[in-house]
Design a protein that fits this description.
Length: 263
């Protein structure tokens, strides 16, 4: 018996580093999984490998018609949606605000926050029909501070916090919980590969060495938290923010040589 037997989970950005980890984690726990993404070939291949409890749907999260089609396809195959993971997100090329093009700002907001808004709007009726559900919006530790050169991404993730709390208040009496997860730096292509050609990836100038847990997170660690937040074990949590960052937001940790000196 899996924790999510007979439940149907839709994950956006379902072929990416974290998205595919989430999909596989839910599938192992018995859920029907719906892979929402624009990477058609990769998504279909993943669904094929997972078998009959998996479905790929082409889903551009900025497109309201795609959302309607995804919900309809899910209902036809599995029935109402139990869990929505608004995971799709993009990073902007590193640049100061005065050198950031408006189209970059608008594209980041379209994917990172409008996409989540449209997801909640499209999926809530399906959850209501099924008697309730859980929505998790993937945010970031960047939603708790400022980071130079990444203003579009930072601002969009701050907006995710407000959207999450408003949705939690609106949907709570429909037995729909809405929470957000705020990962630190996770070892995915978003971090390990250039955002744009010719620009160094984030990992080239980020070091976790000063922090309490001096390493990057693995996608599976975020998936484990996600499984908890969407399970019955977290039934009293809504409008909450779950941070998993290895102590990044705490600031630099006491280093071992200084700790010994203090003794």
């Amino acid at each position: 018996m899996g924790r999510f037997d007979n439940q149907t989970v839709l994950v956006t950005g379902g072929t990416g580093g974290m998205g595919s980890s989430h999909i596989q984690a839910y599938h192992r726990e018995g859920a029907n999984v719906v892979i929402g993404d624009v990477a058609n070939d990769i998504g279909r291949d993943l669904a094929s490998r997972l078998g009959e409890r998996a479905l790929f749907v082409h889903l551009d999260v900025t497109n309201e018609d795609d959302w309607a089609d995804a919900v309809d396809a899910t209902a036809s195959r599995f029935g109402p949606i139990s869990i929505l993971v608004n995971n799709a997100g993009i990073q902007n090329p590193a640049a100061p605000i005065e050198h950031t093009e408006r189209r970059t700002w608008e594209r980041v907001f379209a994917v990172n926050i409008t996409g989540q808004f449209l997801g909640i709007k499209a999926v809530a009726p399906s959850m209501r029909q099924g008697g309730g559900g859980v929505i998790v919006n993937i945010a970031s530790t960047m939603a708790h501070g400022g980071t130079p050169f990444y203003a579009p991404y930072v601002a969009s993730k701050w907006a995710v916090r407000g959207l999450t709390k408003s949705a939690a208040l609106e949907l709570g009496r429909d037995n729909i919980r809405v929470n957000s997860i705020h990962p630190g730096v996770v070892s995915t292509p978003l971090i390990n590969e250039p955002t744009v050609a010719g620009q160094a990836p984030i990992i080239d100038f980020y070091s976790p060495e000063p922090f309490a847990i001096p390493r990057l997170a693995e996608p599976e660690e975020i998936s484990k938290l996600l499984l908890f937040v969407t399970s019955a074990d977290a039934s009293f949590a809504t409008g909450s923010e779950f941070v998993l960052d290895g102590g990044l937001m705490l600031g630099p940790a006491l280093q071992p040589d200084l700790a010994v000196a203090a003794d």
